[in-house]
Amino acid sequence: MNRRQRAIVYDPITAVEWDYAIERRELAAFGIDFVVPRDVEEARSALPDADVVIVSKALPNDDLALLQRCQGVLCYSVGMDGVDANFAAELGLRVHNVPDYCTEEVSDHAVALLLALQRNLVRIASATRSGDWEQAYGELHARPPRRISGQVAGVVGVGRIGSRVATKCAALGMTVVGFDPYAAMPAGVRPVDLATLLAESDAVLLCAALTAASGHLIDVSALGLMKKGSVLVNVARGGLVDEEALARALRSGQLRGAALDVRSVEPPDPSADPLAGIDSLILTPHMGATSIEARHDLHLRAVDAVLRILGGGGSGGRSEETP
């Protein structure tokens, strides 16, 4: 009898409300065991027997090298920077992702952060909720809201998510410019080089992948090119931004504010965080991709990806349940 194929989750998401019932049920119908180890040590011991490895965060090269019969690695996300694709290729493995389950959520989050920055919403709302209207009005005068319509939005990385960010910014009355050396610009987005984008934009929105070439794309030089009083939004990867340089730009007033859903280290060490205590900064905990609907789609599309890796086709006759 042939051995059942196995999909191993290397670093399972452990949030209380998270489960893999959809993956277990759907893959079982194809004779595939979906294995969720209790911890990374248990996952490591299962790697040699895995036909597919699913990675939520990162799969170190030492563990990647343990794979003996694996047909592919699936990043349980849009980004694939948690796996060394070059090393995987040396082992004869392709790295896959789930590219389109959260396009609306991340683009919504980018625009929400932009609006919160330009309206100084977080600090004003916090003071008002506490009953300190005097402080709220102080915030209102210290950093008055800006009109969004008529501003220039610079979108860095104009793929699926960046294109939706551009569309939503345009719908708010913004002029949109874009920089992406790999993708064609969508209609209504004027293509420019990065230096021009930084110099012209009232708001720079990062939607690019993190690669060897894009690490610290926003560094001291880039921040110096940005229009004084502009804002920065990052919903992509924390490694795109030199956080120490960003801290200096915020404290000096070069930037009006920044909003980050992603950090270089997640979570950052509070004792060594260069961005700690900066009141013109909005931080959210890498939640841009999250919604009830997106989570449901992620489970289903992960099933499709596993089946494709193993040569079993796609969703075929499966019925999609509503979340």
Q: Your description of this structure?
A:
The protein is of the alpha/beta class. It is elongated. Strand 6 (152-156), helix 8 and strand 7 form a beta-alpha-beta unit. The model is unreliable at 315-323 (pLDDT under 50). Helices cover 35% and strands 15% of the residues. It folds into two domains: 5-101 and 291-309, Rossmann fold; 103-283, NAD(P)-binding Rossmann-like Domain (Rossmann fold, 3-Layer(aba) Sandwich), CATH 3.40.50. The strands form two sheets. Strands 8-7-6-9-10-11-12 form a seven-stranded parallel β-sheet, with helices on both faces. It contains twelve helices and twelve strands. 39% of the residues are buried.
Secondary structure elements and pairings:
Layout: E1 5-9, H1 21-28, E2 32-35, H2 40-46, E3 52-55, H3 61-64, E4 72-75, H4 85-90, E5 95-96, H5 103-118, H6 121-129, H7 133-142, E6 152-156, H8 160-171, E7 175-179, E8 190-191, H9 194-200, E9 203-206, H10 220-225, E10 230-234, H11 243-252, E11 255-260, E12 281-283, H12 292-309
Parallel strand pairs: 1-2, 1-3, 3-4, 4-5, 6-7, 6-9, 7-8, 9-10, 10-11, 11-12
Comma- or semicolon-separated keywords:
5-stranded parallel sheet, 2 domains, disordered C terminus, Rossmann fold, single chain, 7-stranded parallel sheet, alpha/beta, elongated
